[in-house]
Design brief:
single chain; alpha/beta; Lysozyme-like; six-stranded mixed β-sheet; Amidase/PGRP_sf; EC 3.5.1.28
């Protein structure tokens, strides 16, 4: 028995994750999985917020669900870019649609996208499953057309053929059990009041920026704060395993006294007790400019990060790589290499993020 713990925290309007266009109607609910082992619902809200909408990529979903809460990040009457990769149109004819403001929008014009967060082992936590079923019930009350559960809740896979949500593509019986759970009587636990959480400082965006070096943390749970101040709000706690592998260091962007900025948050490294810092020298900086890794989609990010940690190259979105040149060589992880600005383009993209990951691992093995 879980509480739904549903909250609304809409990202700001931007052309990448929340264009503000209206749905034609709600025809179905689409179940996805995040494929991101280290991010919860709130982390995804933070990622898709801001003018860049998540690294300038056209992607998103309406609701993200983890083992603690469900977060609505896009209004349920608006379009989200979550289920329309197939150029030939949806595999389900009922989800074919087009408008003047979104030609060929298809399923994105008719559906609500639900993203289920996964655990470190790639599975769904039982509370995530139960909470997602409660969210589906909530949607059925709000949108009567969704009450035909078996025909109105579909997998991303059913629309485009993408392996998403992977656990429910691999096991149709598990998917059928999930659907049956939506229709089963549920006694919801009392709502847990979740206090508002501190936000990341908006001035630290996900836009490409210069890195000062790398950091290996010493296996201690760390408070990740909004500012370099012991009294600043704690956005989240970094688990002990985060950044503790010397082969997978964390990128360092700024240093202020004992404080280190890792992305959009700060950690304390008083007396060097919590982290080993390695600053780049000029030669290393020049080496970094030789290569850049171009990432197409969230699903490709884990493979791109493995490659980044191996060769020390920075990450840039496919959108930005087509606007300007970041390095002499661009290594493409997912998506089309057409139009990328670079002297040399190495394409490691496959026909799915699984084959892309395999190509990346093969490339790394030959280094």
């Amino acid at each position: 028995m879980v509480a739904i713990n549903y909250r609304v925290d809409h990202v700001k309007k931007n052309k990448y994750s929340r264009p503000g266009d209206k749905l034609l109607k709600v025809q179905a609910g689409v179940i996805h999985y995040t494929a991101n082992k280290y991010a919860n619902a709130e982390d995804h809200q933070v990622y898709f917020d801001g003018d860049d909408g998540g690294a300038y990529r056209y992607a998103g979903a309406h609701i993200f669900i983890d083992k603690h809460e469900a977060v609505e990040i896009i209004p349920l009457d608006e379009v989200a870019y979550h289920a329309n990769e197939r150029k030939a149109g949806p595999l389900l004819p009922s989800l074919k649609a087009s408008t003047s403001f979104y030609p060929g929008g298809n399923a994105n014009l008719l559906t609500i996208g639900l993203e289920m967060c996964i655990e470190e082992d790639g599975t769904f936590h039982p509370d995530t499953i139960a909470r997602t079923q409660l969210v589906c019930k909530r949607l059925q009350k709000q949108f009567p057309a969704l009450r035909d559960t078996k025909n109105r809740f579909v997998r991303h896979y059913d629309i485009t053929g993408k392996n998403c949500p992977a656990p429910y593509v691999a096991s149709p019986s598990a998917w059928n059990a999930f659907l049956a759970g939506i229709d089963a009587p549920v006694i919801e636990a009392p709502k847990v009041v979740v206090p508002p959480k501190p936000k990341y400082n908006s001035k630290y965006t996900s836009k490409p920026e210069e890195r000062l070096g790398t950091v290996v943390l010493k296996g201690t749970t760390m408070n990740y704060r909004t500012e370099p101040d012991i009294n600043a709000p704690i956005v989240k706690q970094l688990p002990a395993y985060h950044g503790a592998d010397p082969e997978r260091p964390v990128h360092l962007y700024e240093v202020k006294g004992e404080w280190l900025r890792l992305g959009r948050g700060w950690i304390s490294n008083a007396k060097g007790a919590y982290a080993v810092v390695k600053l780049y020298d000029k030669k290393e900086e020049e080496e970094m400019k030789k290569q850049v890794i171009v990432v197409n989609a969230t699903d490709d990010f884990p493979a791109a990060l493995r490659l980044s940690n191996r060769i020390g190259a920075g990450l840039v979105s496919l959108f930005n790589a087509k606007k300007e040149q970041y390095a002499k060589e661009a290594i493409v992880v997912g998506g089309s290499a057409t139009g990328i600005k670079a002297d040399k383009v190495t394409n490691l993209s496959g026909d799915s993020y699984f084959t892309t990951a395999a190509k990346v691992d093969e490339y790394i093995s030959k280094l």
